């Protein structure tokens, strides 16, 4: 049976690529990938224990198309994004005789694709790779845009490269096995896309909360398609974050990164920190007169309905630690914090020069100590 799928183009100075979104794509991924690598090429399928069944199914389809398949497994979590794991993958590629024409198929979430993409960027000065995105976060965000990299002991994502995939495959059916907390956290990023660019998506999230939390495939497909479309458009126009547009993807992330960092990445996952960050950013926007209190309340209500946290009380973190972490964040420009703030649902603006006192007040209001 021919499956219906949607295709979103992404522009890159390296090579343009496509995101394909649909249901039941994994079993036929060999056909999609066959345009990317030469017939008979070696493919390293990089994945993790928890999603081994998806890696195997992808491999079976790739094998059917005549590719020579190898497997590489990464550990779970952020520790997979390390220099040690990077070198291990590079050594495996070498030992299996991988050449320039060969490639990597990353089957997994952001961790798998960040590490695989970075390995692809440096192996023999660059081989091609494909992302098969298995988490909602990966499908709406991390698989797109070519940011690859690893963590250093000093912080997250401090070493990396802009190195776009040759293809992204987002099979909605794979989201069925996602743990509920991962699903909800990723929905924070979907809310972000709604606020920055798409009032229709925001309203869809409001009107379909029940279906979404029950993982209704049609609802998830609508969300992935809209979100991936926005990210694809933004990174196509501002691939290297030099033109000022890509920064809007950072909505909720200035506060969010500060919260994650101050809580030492324990008790809270990224999307949850972004949810709190967006609640704070909207409040800040009201305080500085950029948006109406109605917008902030509407966003707050949606985040709560999606069962996301909107305050930091439970984390017991100090205001000063969050502020310090925010100041260290690599996205600050010329030592000043930049905030992406909503004007209305679907439109944001970038603001600098907000006094530290104002930020401190917001943090306290949202429950920091
Ligand atoms: N490159 C980018 O632009 C970008 C953007 C955002 C985030 N990131 C990075 O992405 C990472 C987070 O990615 P993530 O949220 O996808 O987490 P993740 O990759 O760690 O995956 C979360 C967990 O879910 C498991 N899993 C994956 N797919 C599953 C499925 N379908 N069913 C059941 N379990 C599944 C994984 O094995 C893992 O244990 C972070 O390291 C972050 O820095 C990168
Ligand atoms: Zn994010």
Features:
single chain; 369 residues; alpha/beta; Rossmann fold; Dehydroquinate synthase-like, alpha domain; 2 domains; seven-stranded mixed β-sheet; two-stranded antiparallel sheet; 11 strands; 19% strand; globular; binds nicotinamide-adenine-dinucleotide; binds zinc ion
Map the helices and strands.
Layout: E1 5-10, E2 17-22, H1 29-33, E3 42-48, H2 52-64, E4 68-74, H3 83-95, E5 103-108, H4 110-122, E6 128-133, H5 136-142, E7 147-152, E8 155-162, E9 167-171, H6 180-197, H7 199-207, H8 209-213, H9 217-237, H10 253-262, H11 270-287, H12 293-305, H13 319-328, E10 338-344, E11 347-352, H14 356-365
Bound molecules: nicotinamide-adenine-dinucleotide and zinc ion.
Structural class: alpha/beta
Overall tally of structural domains: 2
Estimated helix fraction: 40-55%
CATH class wording of the largest domain:
Mainly Alpha
Regarding quaternary structure, how should these chains be classified? Answer: single chain
Please trace the helix and strand order, writing H or E for each element.
EEHEHEHEHEHEEEHHHHHHHHEEH
The description of the largest β-sheet is: 7 strands, mixed
CATH architecture title of the largest domain = Up-down Bundle
| Beta-strand segment tally | 11
CATH topology of the largest domain: Dehydroquinate synthase-like, alpha domain
Alpha plus pi helix count:
14
CATH superfamily of the largest domain: Dehydroquinate synthase-like - alpha domain
Shape: globular
Query: Order of strands across the biggest sheet?
Result: 1-2-9-6-5-3-4
Radius of gyration: 20 Å
Flag low-confidence runs: none
Determine the N-to-C terminus distance: 57 Å
Relative strand content: 15-25%
Ligands present:
nicotinamide-adenine-dinucleotide, zinc ion
């Amino acid at each position: 049976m021919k499956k219906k799928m949607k295709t979103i183009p992404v522009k890159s100075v390296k090579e343009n690529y496509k995101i394909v979104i649909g249901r039941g794509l994994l079993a036929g991924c060999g056909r999609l990938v066959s345009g990317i690598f030469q017939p008979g090429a070696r493919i390293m399928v990089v994945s993790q224990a928890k999603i081994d069944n998806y890696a195997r199914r992808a491999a079976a389809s790739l094998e059917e198309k005549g590719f020579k398949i190898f497997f590489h497994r990464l550990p779970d979590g952020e520790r997979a994004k390390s220099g040690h794991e990077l070198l291990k993958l590079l050594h495996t590629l070498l030992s299996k005789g991988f050449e320039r024409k060969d490639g990597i198929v990353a089957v997994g979430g952001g961790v798998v694709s960040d590490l695989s993409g970075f390995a692809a960027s440096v192996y023999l000065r660059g081989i091609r790779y494909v992302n098969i995105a298995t988490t909602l976060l990966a499908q709406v965000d991390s698989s797109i845009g070519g940011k690859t990299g690893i963590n250093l002991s000093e912080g997250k994502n401090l070493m990396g490269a802009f190195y776009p995939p040759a293809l992204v495959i987002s099979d909605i059916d794979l989201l069925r096995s996602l743990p509920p907390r991962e699903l909800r956290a990723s929905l924070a990023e979907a809310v972000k896309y709604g606020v920055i660019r798409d009032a229709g998506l925001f309203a869809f999230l409001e009107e379909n909360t029940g279906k979404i939390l029950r993982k209704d495939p049609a609802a998830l497909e609508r969300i992935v398609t809209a979100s991936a479309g926005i990210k694809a458009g933004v990174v196509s126009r501002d691939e290297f974050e030099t033109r000022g547009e890509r920064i809007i993807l950072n909505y909720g992330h200035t506060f969010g990164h500060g919260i994650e960092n101050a809580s030492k990445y324990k008790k809270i996952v990224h999307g949850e920190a972004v949810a709190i960050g967006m609640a704070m950013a909207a409040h800040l926007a009201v305080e500085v007169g950029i948006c109406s209190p109605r917008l902030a309340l509407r966003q707050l209500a949606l985040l709560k309905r999606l069962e996301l946290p909107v305050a930091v009380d439970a984390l017991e973190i100090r205001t000063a630690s969050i502020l310090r972490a925010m100041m260290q964040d690599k996205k600050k420009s010329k030592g000043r914090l930049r905030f992406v703030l909503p004007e209305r649902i679907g439109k944001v603006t970038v603001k600098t020069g907000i006094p530290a006192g104002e930020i401190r007040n917001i943090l306290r209001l949202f429950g920091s100590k």
